[in-house]
Please model this.
Amino acid sequence: MGREIWLKQVGLFLIYLFVQVLFFRNLTFFEGNVMVFPYIAFLILLPFGAMNMSILIVGFCMGFVIDIFYDSIGIHTAACVFLAFTRTQIMKWTAPTGGYELSEVPTIHQMGFGAFLVFVIPQIILHHITLFMIEAGSMAFMPKAILRGVLSTIATLVIVLAIQYLFYSNVGRRRI
Amino acid sequence: MSQLFAIIFKYRVFLVFILLELVAAALIVNNNTYQRSVILSSSNTVVGGIYNTTSNIEQYFNLTEVNEDLLNENALLRKQIELYQVAGINDSVDTKNTLSPLFYGMSDTIAYDFIPARVINNSVYRSANYITLNKGRKDGIVEGMGIMTKDGVVGQVKSVSNHFATCYSLLHRDMAVSSELKKNGALCTVTWNTEDPTKASANYLPLHLDINVGDTITSSGFNTVYPEGVMLGVVTEAEKTPSERFWLVTIDVSVDFSKLHHVYVSKSLFRIEKDSLESMDEQ
Model:
């Protein structure tokens, strides 16, 4: 892993973070039942070869900073750490024969539409349901929390796909 | 021993995962005891500064609305000054029922001071909603002060930095406002049911009282957070259930939380005196 790729990841971390807190934070639909958290795309789309330990720590940091902005200390942290941990498992299950190219970064053009969805959807849905369930706080609101999680997953997915089509060119190289 | 280390090494990712989740759980559980640790909330300098900048840009888009609001409030206050002057001349006028909540404290002596502030961050759709204000300790705000607009109660200050304040919104599952039924002064507690940002519930109203749709609930002024008589909402549903000892009352919150721009922080001038006297009683 070269130094350049890490600098790029730090840059992406800041971009995802600020776009989330300055723009997507204000975006809610259906009386707040649907919210979007495209910042988790940063964690999902870390290079395939990133070490499990570093993903956990990066996930913790990302969740923690988001929590400070959302005044929800601990909630996003817990959901992000959970996402970071399950990502490794999901990568194992969804890997094509021969495994992922470890030096690659997941993009829609490099993976193909179907494989990208299979890789991304379980991670978004796990994160969102965890998030809304922790936030709801009591068992009475669980069904509603799960519903909100599922609906928000769709909204987040649309934005993640839009980001892919807008900012990643079809030769599989980043433009940003 | 070396085997133990080997096992720890083998499961190190899982162990770190558990550790980080425990840290997160500790943060969630202890959230309220971190009241004074401003660094973990949106009133820290960096986050507050960012929200202040974005709100500086956003405020131009709702200037018309804010101007109209201020104009209305000016007109109201003007009318009340007239009433107050009349009340001063003619002692027999019942000042308490004609004056605005903002002046209630004044009927005997000035008990509250109001600090105007701008809302730079606000949420309504979570089960724990917070508001960030662009005023802080340097402007005289301390933890525990009340927040209100001309429409009614908005929330309470949670933590303060030099230039910003993070506050509990009324739409927070832990908020409870000491309040009363305006028509007969029966005490109740207003809480939020974490579902709908326009509804709240008034608890502990005993069944022998007569409660109708359209009754007004206002703050009681007992806890020196808000002056007496600040609007909370109007009763929209009142239900008697045989199994409960109290009315199940739903109120329409008088403040529109989705359009919160400018607020007043109410500062009780006698708070320390009253609280220390009351805590002396308990000993």
Q: What stands out?
A: The first helix of chain B runs from residue 2 to 10. Residues 2-34 of chain B form one domain.
